[in-house]
Amino acid sequence: MCAASTTRTASPRSRRQLREENGSGGPVFLHLTSASDFLKAAPLPSQLGRCRFGLLCLRSFVEGEKLMPFIAKVTLLFVVFVDLLGQGLVFPIINTLVMDPGTSMLPRDTTDAMRHFDYGLIIGVFFICWFLGAPYISKLSDVIGRKNAILICLFGALGGYALTIGALYMNSFPLLILGRAITGLTAGNQPIAQAAMIDGSADEEDRNRNMGYIITGVSFGLVGGPIIGGFLSDPQFLGSISSVKLPFYACFALVAIAIALVLFTFREPDEGPAERQPFVFRPAEIFELLWQIRKYPKVLRLTMVFFFFHIANMSFYIFVDNYLTSRFDYGTLGGSMVMLTIGVALAFSSTFLVVPAQKRFSKQAILGGTFVVWAVSAAAFVASPIALLTFVPVFCFYFVFGIAYPTFLGLYSAAVSDEEQGWVMGVTIAVFTLVAGIISLLGGDLIGVDLNLPFYGVIAAALIALLVMFLAWNRPDIRVLTRKSAG
């Protein structure tokens, strides 16, 4: 720690207490009354690179200085965009490949129940592998650096798309699963980008805004995926050029562009070799990451609600395309339009409404309202008599999600110290991917029994989350975290 941070900040313990008092994951500034006061006390430029507090103070007092350059934020958003592009693109195509008897991916005489199971299997393998890989890579990013961890993920995605393209040429279902597994193992860019954005945040409002930007990247990925998948795979648009392989070639190229952007435009503060611990590969790190939750009461109480939050979210998201195909005979293009609707809803609310909503309502009120909207939307979805009407509850479901998810991420960030941001963002992805994997594997059987069962699960999970939130969060330390943002 540099001299300036030693003389100008409180002790680590008192800084954490102040973070809890103001609900902020950002730094605490003490005793600095002007830019000149800071500059007189500031370390040499060479030391500033290793002094995160010094960088944060400099941003607060020197007008126009940015914690994170604009091009770096654009790069992170593009990385998240590419990371999520595969979901919005892959789900409709996988659904068509598995559910349509006219394709050659599965034998023509495969039963509908088996097709539902295979759909859940291939989606579930992706999320389970994401669960195994993302938390470890997220924690690893605190050791080897955000940039190196992002590059590992991107090269993994490149290999996964190559295997997927090969599987489509050979009509090999096992190779398709392998490609999705490798893509899942290295699909950890979102929590790393979240942690990098938090590193560059000055205060609670800035952090929440940056979390909104991350969700914007997510939503653009969900929007871009269906557009690319529907446009490049449908003969109505490209004629004989179109194919189910072409969207994956496009994704391959976009991942290569992301690699180039990270290599040449993204820089992180140089902490110096003394402050980076040596890399040690320990597979048990994945489970230790989650086991550590028991030491953090606030994180544990947040996770009790977050678990049911994602049961509701993923039960809806994973099977919405499969449901519409089975009930209304949607194809790849129709499924892509559903994903496009999800992406548009997310893009608007996460980009423009996160900070205003948090200033007007407490975070607990935002999440409580989300659970109510989810239960009503799921009920309206299964009750819709015609396909077109289902788009309304789908839009409403993910419109409120776009506000609720960055709000939840902000709560997790504010619940731990600066040094534990990588770990806690890894926890959020671990919970998300573990729930998604389990829901995919179980839901494939459930939807084979009754198309409506996964969506009844959405209603139940949303109501349970609402109940658990009011019971588990009725504590002073949680109420401080969930109060309205200042301003």
In short:
Mean pLDDT is 78; it is low at 1-66.
Write the layout of secondary structure elements.
Blueprint: H1 3-8, H2 12-22, H3 35-41, H4 45-48, H5 52-61, H6 70-99, H7 112-144, H8 146-170, H9 173-185, H10 189-199, H11 204-233, H12 235-238, H13 246-265, H14 285-291, H15 297-328, H16 332-352, H17 354-360, H18 363-383, H19 391-414, H20 421-449, H21 453-472, H22 476-482
Helix pairs in contact: 6-7, 6-10, 6-11, 6-13, 6-15, 6-16, 7-8, 7-9, 7-10, 7-20, 8-9, 8-10, 8-13, 10-11, 10-20, 11-13, 11-16, 11-19, 15-16, 15-19, 15-20, 15-21, 16-19, 18-19, 18-21
Task: Describe the 3D structure.
The protein has helices at 3-8, 12-22, 35-41, 45-48, 52-61, 70-99, 112-144, 146-170, 173-185, 189-199, 204-233, 235-238, 246-265, 285-291, 297-328, 332-352, 354-360, 363-383, 391-414, 421-449, 453-472, 476-482. By secondary structure, the protein is mainly alpha-helical. Helix 8 runs antiparallel to helix 13. It is globular, with a radius of gyration of 23 Å. The two termini are 32 Å apart.
